[in-house]
Amino acid sequence: MSQPNKCFVDKVTAPIRLIDVVSQNQNDGVQSQRQLSTVQEIEECLNYTGPSDYTHRHLSICQKTSWSALQVTRELLDLFVSEHDISDSFWDIPSCFYHRNDDVEINFCLPVTVDRIGSSIEICYTIRYPEFKPSSRTWAIRQTGLYYRFDTSTSQTVSVLFSPTPDSVAHQKIEKFLLEKDGSSKGLLVPLNIHKILFGAYFPAWRQYIASLEKKLLPETSTTFATFIEEPLRVGYDNLSSLASLDNQFLQVSTLLSHGEDVLRELSSIFTQEGLKSTAPGAIEALDNYRRQSVAHGRTATFLQKRAQTTAQLLGDTLLFRDQILAKQQNSSMLQLNKSAVFLTTLTLLYLPASFVATFFGMNFFDLDQESDRIVGTPMIWIYVVSAFLLTLVTFLVYYWVLHHDNVVVNRMSPKVNVGDWRTLARRALTMKGDTVRTDSMRLEKMNV
Fold it and tell me: Percent of the chain having pLDDT more than 90?
């Protein structure tokens, strides 16, 4: 059993409900309900009732939240197991309900486990289902587990329901079923109805949950397919994140529905092999109907998942092509700038010799002799030649040094930023971005609902 120390609590704060259904010929059809929260209470109940006085004994255990431990002590559950001679496979169910802080095993479901001991058959499994939370108007994936044992020789049934929250829908419906039926009712004589009630309480919500996810997908799909590369885009990389999230959710739906389909198929096969089809045709047919619904919902989720993948692929290609168009436009602008630079360089080369000659002869090193009408040069012209040569040499040396030590120059010219301040600013930016994304997602969910 995984996480053995996190599955139970030291002190029970939520009531544990135990329902004993007593046959009519033994106790005038009286049905009793007791709430047990300590080991002493369950010992008194077992000693008072006895193992042969009931036709159906049902124990309901819950969590305070779906990520917390079961509201039961290990000693209390050990006592219940030992008093009813329950096999060790029972402990696989509570091992799925433990305290957690992350999404570890959030999609794990216990498959159908069957144990035949003498004239009794034991069945245990867990399923996951969606549940709408009216307070936050969001959906959550819950899990519930059921242990079921039926003894054909004594016609006694023992069942244990593990619920993610107190007063869950399945708990209320099973409790109502056990308390409202009397000894002469055919419904009470069919212990398989507890499986029918369990799936009937949770499986209809799959259609609504898938529809809520589809409402989130349709705007993304419509906007993406109505986007043209040449026009301003109304979608961006944030939409890719939304589509990836929806893709994962549809994948989760398909996985959980596939498990539900396997559980329903196994239950129907087991009950048919046990020869209960003639005594409980309605319950088996109901399980088969829920299995067909699971297959249909799974097909819908698979289709929507592929649609989300197609939309994400199209959006990725659109953004890629849009980036290529922008790059092409930038390249065209750079080509225009290059042409302008070439033109200016040509003009510079064209006028540079004339400008140099005019500047050179306009210096004071030359003068016009009025008597001979000739240009006379000073013998100090060597100063200009030496200065020009030295300046040119220094210029090329500096250029060569900068060319081979550009990192040093860039680092000295760049502003100094404290690493701690930079990390603080980064955390602030990520926090602001996360708040913006959460606000936008909540606004979109409100619009969809």
Answer: 34
